[in-house]
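User: Here's a chain of 88 residues. Predict its fold as tokens.
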Amino acid sequence: MFLRGEIEQAHAMHAGVVERLMLWEQAWQTWQLDWLLGSGDIMAGKEGLWLVDYQAYQSLLLNIVASTGLIGGIGFMALMVLPWLSLA
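Assistant: Prediction complete.
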């Protein structure tokens, strides 16, 4: 329903799923504006009518990639993978 544009009906049926999809959609739009270096904003996108109280529940990975871009995303992944490789 969300993908077909029936956002109000989808929100009435599964509010949490629709809110998460809206957050990812806003982060994707923010990332597309400046994909290499990022937007510099800590919170991706602007909250809509349904996302006013949702700021504390945004995804950490989503915000890192949207705010720091491709370079920051690769750096973050390196920081996550290198300790695991040293343990292995």
